[in-house]
Design brief:
The complex is a heterotrimer of chains A (327), B (157) and C (774). Chain A has 13 helices and twelve strands. Chain A has 327 residues and is of the alpha+beta class. Chain A has a domain of 103 residues: Enolase-like, domain 1 (2-Layer Sandwich). A five-stranded antiparallel sheet of chain A has the order 11-10-9-8-12. Chain A has a four-stranded antiparallel sheet with strand order 4-7-5-6. In chain A, strands 1-3-2 form a three-stranded parallel sheet, covered by helices on one side. Chain B has two domains: 76 residues, Beta-grasp domain (Ubiquitin-like (UB roll), Roll), CATH 3.10.20; 68 residues, Orthogonal Bundle (DNA polymerase, domain 1), CATH 1.10.150. Chain B is built from six helices and five strands, in the order ββαβββααααα. The relative contact order of chain B is 0.15. The longest helix of chain B is centred in the C-terminal third of the chain and has 14 residues. Among the domains of chain C are: 151 residues, Aldehyde Oxidoreductase, domain 4; 208 residues, Aldehyde oxidase/xanthine dehydrogenase, molybdopterin binding domain (Aldehyde Oxidoreductase, domain 4), CATH 3.30.365.10. In chain C, the strands form eight sheets. Chain C has an eight-stranded mixed sheet with strand order 3-5-1-12-9-10-11-22, sandwiched between helices. A six-stranded mixed sheet of chain C has the order 7-15-14-13-8-32, sandwiched between helices. Chain C has a four-stranded mixed sheet with strand order 18-27-28-31, with helices on both faces. In chain C, helix 5 crosses helix 6 and helix 9 packs parallel to helix 18. Classes of the chains: A alpha+beta (327), B alpha+beta (157), C alpha+beta (774). Chains in contact: A-B, A-C, B-C. The interface between B and C is large, with 52 and 56 residues.
């Protein structure tokens, strides 16, 4: 397999990246770890004439308890045992991404912005040409939802749900300077399923910031997939919060792997704050989340099963939530 | 930036300079331009692990690594992991335990296992299983591969 | 660890590391894609984007005019049909007249580089007429508008129909105390070897053609090349480099191999065709998607009275081994139990999908799943233990089945006894809590086919040549194909064993049709048995001449001599010997370098009715496995934490290799149970990738305990039988029956994915049938 020709850019500072990104708007992709982008390029999926490699931008590297550089590799987070102890739910998610070889190159930012997936999209040019191209690449129709005017490909990152429940913020550099926004606001539910974020031309995801959590916060990420390695999530459920049998002090729940974007369910969890977290409350929450999500048939496991598992995985995530040693 | 500028990096301990266009991945550079054919192409899409090499000591899918991005870095392939004569402990254990059958996945496993034992000299069985869970083997059911890595860990102590 | 009994042999019966292991662990073993020839160019294939289409016209002018393009081929250039079975030659190197599936090869290009070749392919213009798509085999059972092949039965898409009846099945069912029925449905699965297919071909000015290819059966490739390219076999040289796994997927002569040679002939340049992983999936030849229906009758004591079996087998676009498959899906029911009455109807139907073919434990796997699950249902109805039912019905040694299979050695009863004890069966069966269970599955497979393809039974199925010269190194030539299973190692070990020499003296040469005598290659689990016997005969012939020379040197009668380690000496007189090298040099005084040849012919066997040879084998393997499962009843996910595998391969000649074959077979069998499947939307393969084709991970493997309990087979080399394919079969029903023990559902649709487990549990709950109190 081969990559079509492109021009490779290797900026070394964030400012340089933003300048390049502004200049090349619409004609480039960022290259982070490459483990998602390059397979797509080899299959000639939306390949661009320019690649801006972020490899050499020092500021994007590194991590601390409260900041993850966008180019920090997943394997480096995984290897940091202290970080693992303090961020249990996030560590669950990181350790379940793809394979060790993918995590060795794959990055935090790359996983947050991983392309959506679909049986009818993640195929070779030949395969797609034989069926007729779809609206996500080279065509204008959807093979999953007939008459669809938007794309239903599935959001397949593991980190996003786990970070959403930690109230993570993303730091974005753009032509008009730096800004911070909640991770949830990075994803744009108003999009067509193809454009999925609120990143503007010239924007660069610089880092993820983790605000301090409440004392005694617990968290868990649970991933549904056929095999314990390789597979993208068929469902990912993240919970985080501080609770005991008396009272919920804080609570977040997010789901990924079933729709075009990861979703947080604050309208269901906020009313639980101040109330006791009874098994019945967890069940009601699980049932309601399950009722709301709408997977389509574009991954390995059938959508009715994936949906049914939402409830099970929510209940289990609560049951298995572990406390991080530093709040 | 010219599209065929010289790429220079350390390959198996020795500096090399080679012209390399931007879209070339490291696997193609190694196999086709440098004729180091020990690194195998099983899928070209990061889903088999046959092409694993070490980049700055880190196990890496060479099929998904732009060759130009190893500029100035150190790359170790199966040829570099192998001593000039004989076998390293991981390789010797793979032979003794029958951890090779068709052998096509073997260089990737040897590279991955070598990196594992460098960072974790006494891995548990679960850690071994996890470390190799990005390398596919269709012949062995992994059992003898895991035994070989456990044995190599004991030998290397 | 397997049971271990010290055997009478110096090497055989031990754990012999693979002879090519050091080359493989260092990346030095040479596979086809590692071959580089001077001036080599690239061949690429254009595949049909249409499931079924008439090719009305093709325009290749633009493609041919592209700079860097050296040849463009379409089907009309080499239209001679071929196929692995002489009776079903329905393939062509490149589609002629019609394209029959998405992925069918419709044109080929040779160019200086990959990009140019791909560009050229995009410039080939076809005018086509779309034809009806036949993605469901049932739609092809009667006359269709446009048969996929003209040879379909009576205008249908039926490629082969087999009807057999032995005894009187209706009478058996009429007098039965108990009958059971199990209907299984099996998705297609594929070999998924790690090395994609690759071929290099070079035509030279001396009028010869050399082809290097990743093949399991160099000889059939040799024949197909000759037939299609119309070049006599002696002007074609086929070389088999290391092969990165085959499992049956590299046993047919494949179209791209012929195309590659054709491009080399057309251009005069060496040409390489290397497959992408997607190409491998389109080439397939994997296990047939199958629907079977097994009915079993027994008397009140549990004696089996008869089987009534039907199978609908989906062939995809070509015949491949399909005629054999159609027979095997019935006749491989003939063991490991006595079956006094037997009726079978099997149909293999073409569909507009990638061709099915031979995959490890070909024809015996899906059938066995259904039989073994039916037998457990029978045992339950009879109120008897699954082991007891099987023990009661075990085929005895030295018997003949109702369809006249000759059974010689069987250690099936020992398999059952050993695995029952080691697995702790009696304490676990129906006694583990809800969600956990144990299951028994058994196996039976041919140790080589008695009926060789392309040969009369009078021709040997395997020949081995030895040559030894001054240096004392022994060169071994044979066209047996080591594809990772360790046949080179066994060949070397047998020669070394017989001659008493160190293994390092023996050098198994690369398969090269110019020098390797014909062996039919690696399929039907034939190599150990057939090549092993040929190797033994060759080595014994060489040994006899060395002993004669030693007798002359020592001045002792040859009958008093024996072969020791690197020496030949007088029996009982440790001081009276000559070294191997001295004996060799003495023997060479009269003839120079010594050569020897050995061969193997399968004995005459089987009945005289139509299809009687199908499934006849010089020996059969037997297996009894117990699997333990642990089901998460809320998600339907399950694990197989333990598996005990009792296997009768006769004497295990290389325990390392036998264990490796069993462990690998269990992995592959588990894959078919747990998640592997070729998923289609109509005729379109949805998952042609190693990401979406779900091969099990290390964490999914059970702890495996292997019990090698076989007695020596009377005809196998040193008592050995096959261990390459049979070990897969019992895996599937052992898990299937364990799932029943765990949750009370007999799953009939494979793979048994978590969603299917939950559906099964839902159905059971809806019927208010509690299981183990749940």
């Amino acid at each position: 397999m081969h990559l079509d020709p492109f021009e490779l850019h290797r900026p070394t500072t964030v400012d340089e990246v933003v300048r390049l990104a502004t200049e090349l708007a619409g004609r480039f992709d960022y290259l982070a770890g490459g483990t998602d982008l390059l397979p797509n390029y080899k299959m000639h999926l939306n390949a661009k004439p320019h690649l801006v490699a972020l490899e050499d931008v020092r500021e994007l590297r590194g991590h601390s308890d409260s900041r993850l550089g966008a180019m920090e590799r997943l394997a480096d987070l995984e290897a940091d045992r202290t970080f693992g102890r303090t961020h249990p739910g996030l560590t669950d998610a990181i350790g379940e991404v793809a394979t060790p070889l993918v995590r060795s190159s794959g990055t935090v930012g790359g996983n947050l912005l991983v392309d959506t997936r679909c049986f009818f999209f993640n195929q070779s040019y030949f395969w797609r040409s034989s069926l007729g191209f779809c609206l996500k690449a080279d065509g204008d129709r959807c093979h999953v939802v007939p008459q669809a005017e938007r794309c239903y490909a599935t959001f397949s990152g593991d980190l996003a749900p786990a970070l959403l429940v930690l109230d993570a913020e993303v730091e974005v550099a753009g032509p008009s300077g730096r800004r911070r926004l909640p991770l949830g606001a990075l994803y744009d539910p108003g999009g067509d399923g193809i454009r999925r974020t609120r990143l503007a031309p010239g924007d660069l995801l610089v880092a993820v910031h983790l605000p301090p959590g409440p004392p005694g916060r617990r968290a868990r990420y649970k991933k549904l997939r056929v095999r314990p390695s390789y597979d993208f999530p068929e469902l990912g459920v993240a919970v985080a919060g501080a609770w005991d049998s008396e009272r919920v002090r804080s609570l977040r729940l997010a789901v990924g792997g079933v729709e075009t974007l990861p979703r947080r369910f604050d309208d269901l969890t906020d009313p639980l704050v101040g109330t006791p977290l009874t098994p019945e409350a967890v069940n009601r929450l699980a049932d309601e989340v399950q009722r709301r999500v709408r997977p389509v048939h574009n991954t390995f496991l059938p959508p009715d099963y994936r949906r049914r598992m939402v409830g099970v995985y929510v209940r289990r995530a609560f049951a298995e939530a572990r406390e991080g040693s530093a709040g | 930036m010219s599209s065929r500028e010289l790429l220079s990096f350390r390959l198996n301990g020795h500096p090399v300079e080679v012209p390399c266009p931007s879209p070339r991945v490291l696997l193609d550079l190694l196999r086709e331009d440098l004729r180091l054919t020990g690194t195998k192409r099983g899928c070209d899409l990061g889903t088999c692990g046959c092409c694993a090499v070490l980049v700055d000591g880190r196990p890496t899918l060479s099929c998904l690594t732009l060759a130009r991005l190893v500029d100035g870095r150190s790359v170790e392939t199966i040829e570099g992991v192998s001593p000039p004569r004989g076998l390293n402990p991981v390789q010797a254990a793979f032979v003794a335990h029958g951890a090779t059958q068709c052998g096509f996945c073997t260089p990737g496993f040897v590279v991955t296992a070598t990196a594992l034992l460098r960072s974790n000299p006494r891995p548990s069985r679960a850690e071994i299983e996890r470390a190799i869970s990005g390398n596919l083997c269709r012949c062995t059911g992994y059992i003898k591969i895991i035994e070989a890595i456990e044995d190599a860990a004991r030998t290397e102590e | 660890m397997p049971s271990s009994e010290p055997g009478p042999y110096r090497l055989l019966g031990g754990r012999i590391p693979y002879v090519e292991g050091p080359l493989k662990v260092t990346g030095r073993a040479e596979y086809t894609d590692d071959i580089q020839r001077p001036g080599m160019i690239v061949g690429r294939l254009l595949r049909s984007p249409w499931p079924h289409a008439r090719l009305l016209s093709v325009d290749v002018r633009e493609a041919r005019a592209l700079p860097g393009v050296l040849a463009v081929l379409t089907g009309d250039r080499y239209p001679t049909p071929f196929g692995v079975l002489p009776i079903t030659h329905d393939e062509t190197a490149i589609a002629v007249g019609k394209a029959r599936y998405i992925g069918d090869i419709v044109a080929a290009v040779a160019a200086t580089d990959e990009l140019t070749a791909e560009k050229a392919l995009s410039l080939v213009r076809f005018e086509v007429e779309p034809l009806p798509e036949y993605s469901d085999p049932r739609s092809g059972l009667s006359k269709v508008a446009e048969p996929i092949h003209a040879r379909g039965l009576l205008g249908s898409n039926i490629q082969k129909e087999v009807v057999q009846h032995f005894g009187d099945v209706d009478a058996a069912f009429a007098r039965a105390a108990v009958t059971v029925r199990f209907r299984g449905r099996f998705a297609g699965v594929t070999h998924a070897f790690t090395e994609p297919m690759a071929t290099v071909a070079e035509a030279t000015p001396d009028g010869r053609l050399t082809v290097w290819s990743a093949t399991q059966v160099p000889h059939y490739l040799h024949r197909a090349l000759s037939e299609v390219l119309e070049i006599p076999m002696h002007r074609i040289r086929v070389i088999k480099p290391e092969v990165g796994g085959g499992f049956g997927g590299k046993s047919d002569p494949l179209p791209h191999e012929i195309v590659c040679a054709a491009l080399a002939l057309e251009t005069g340049r060496p040409v390489k065709i290397l497959f992408d992983r997607e190409d491998v999936f389109y080439t397939n030849h994997g296990r047939h998607p199958t629907q079977n229906d097994v009915r079993i009758a027994a008397d009140a004591d549990g004696n089996l009275l008869g089987y009534d079996i039907e199978a609908l087998i989906e062939g995809g676009a070509w015949s491949s081994f399909g005629t054999v498959t159609t027979y095997y899906n019935g006749v491989l029911a003939m063991g490991p139990y006595r079956v006094p009455n037997f009726r079978y109807k099997g149909q293999r139907v073409y569909t507009t999908k990638p061709p099915s073919g031979a995959m490890r434990a070909h024809g015996g796997t899906n059938l066995r799943y259904s039989i073994e699950l039916a037998l457990d249902a029978l045992a339950e109805k009879l109120g008897t233990d699954p082991f007891d039912l099987r023990l009661r019905n075990a085929l005895p040694p030295n018997s003949t089945t109702i369809n006249q299979f000759r059974i010689t050695s069987t250690s099936f009863v020992k398999c059952l006894t050993a695995v029952r004890e080691r697995s702790g069966w009696d304490a676990k069966f129906r006694r583990l809590p809800y969600g956990r269970g144990v299951g028994l599955g058994c196996g039976f497979y041919i140790s080589g086919s008695n009926s060789p393809i392309h040969f009369t039974p009078k021709m040997p199925q395997s020949t081995v040549h030895l040559k030894v010269d001054m240096d004392g190194g022994i060169a071994v030539h044979s066209m047996q194909a080591d594809i990772g299973q360790g046949s080179n190692t066994l060949l070397a070990a047998i020669v070394a064993e017989v001659l008493g020499v160190d293994l390092e003296r023996v050098h198994v040469q690369r398969v090269d049709s110019d020098v390797s005598p014909v062996d039919l290659g690696s399929y039907s689990s034939r190599v150990t048995f057939m090549m092993g016997n040929a190797a033994r005969e060759a080595a014994e012939s060489l040994r006899d001449r060395l002993v004669a020379a030693a007798a002359r040197t020592l001045g002792e009668p040859a009958e008093t001599l024996e072969v020791g380690h690197e020496r030949i000496g007088v029996r009982g007189r440790p001081d009276r010997f000559v070294t191997f090298l001295d004996a060799l040099h003495a023997a060479m005084e009269t003839s120079g370098a010594l050569t020897a040849s050995g061969s193997y012919r399968s004995p005459t066997m089987g009945g005289t009715f139509k299809g009687a040879r199908a499934g006849t084998a010089p020996a059969y393997s037997f297996a009894a496995y117990v699997a333990e499962v642990d089901v998460d009843v809320e998600t339907g996910a399950y694990r197989v934490p333990r598996l005990w595998a009792a296997f009768d391969c006769g004497r295990a000649l290389n325990r390392l290799a036998v264990e490796g074959q069993i462990e690998g077979s269990i992995h592959m069998g588990l894959g078919q149970v747990m998640g592997e499947s070729m998923n289609y939307r109509s005729s379109r393969l949805l998952n042609p990738s190693l990401l979406e084709y779900k091969i099990p991970m290390p964490q999914q493997m059970p702890k495996v305990e292997i019990l090698l309990v076989g007695d020596d087979d009377p005809e196998g080399p040193f008592g050995a039988k096959e261990a390459g394919e049979g070990p897969l079969i019992a895996t599937l029903p052992a898990v299937g029956n364990a799932l029943y023990d765990a949750v009370g559902v007999r799953f009939s649709e494979l793979p048994i994915t978590p969603d299917r487990v939950l559906r099964g549990l839902d159905l059971r709950a809806a019927e208010h049938r509690p299981w183990k109190g749940a």
